[in-house]
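Fold it.
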Amino acid sequence: SACAMRKEWTRLASQSEFSGKRFQFELAVGEEKLRISGNGGDVAAAVAEGKAKSKTTPERFMQLLLGYRGAAQLAEDSNVGIARTDMRLAELLFPERNTYVMGPDRF
């Protein structure tokens, strides 16, 4: 869940140029919108209302969340759209962690 990721997102933000700054990243995941925001310290995450500049499918979001594919690589998919202004936060909050996906893990 988004709440389970707060600690990691806080850690990632604190080690970046966003440390101590306010920021907001909104991503439509299917029919829902995830809002991740920093207020100068801890990072908060919640499902929000309204439209987002960036979008993905639930399947592609899981690849992003698990680090199987990076934001820039996913943005090349036709059913994914990451706004240019959101790209740095997307790369920061969802770093690519695994470059190899085992056969049984493909989705």
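The first helix runs from residue 2 to 14.
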